[in-house]
Structure prediction request, 168 residues.
Amino acid sequence: MEAILDQQAELLRIGEELIRESSRKLRDAAGPDALRQAYELYRGFYEAVDWTEPWLVAVLCLHAVLLLVAVATRKSEMAQTCVFVLCAFLVLIAERLNGLASAHWRAFSTQDYFDKEGVFTTTVFCVPLIAVLVVVLVNFLRLMASVMIQAKRAQLKQRARAEAKKQR
Prediction:
């Protein structure tokens, strides 16, 4: 028993060393002010966008509605499937939407946010959709686990009935 505890302590010490070393390497690679730089980058992005433009408000409302529907219909597999398919489809066509928006941005926007790489579209359109997809996926896993629990309980009840019937 003593040897097992010693091995466990040694493994914990090695794991701690690995974590400290990798943390040091990450800090060295990113630089001492990496968090501040990231914050400034995100802050600059936030301030560069005019969030009051009607089409942007509509996109943000779409995300809010999809998230609310995903949460409100968490017990309905069919509704969850529809939300999942819709979000996945929107992410799938995001590149084409970015191309269309890039070509016709003057018709609906005051600035051209749409570059060839689709950074703005990915950040503002796809990331929230992927977050909704993750919510739905986690809910699917929760629903699947509850169905598996129900099936196992039914199996155990059936087995208990069969045992009781044998004993009679």
In short: The chain has six helices and no strands.
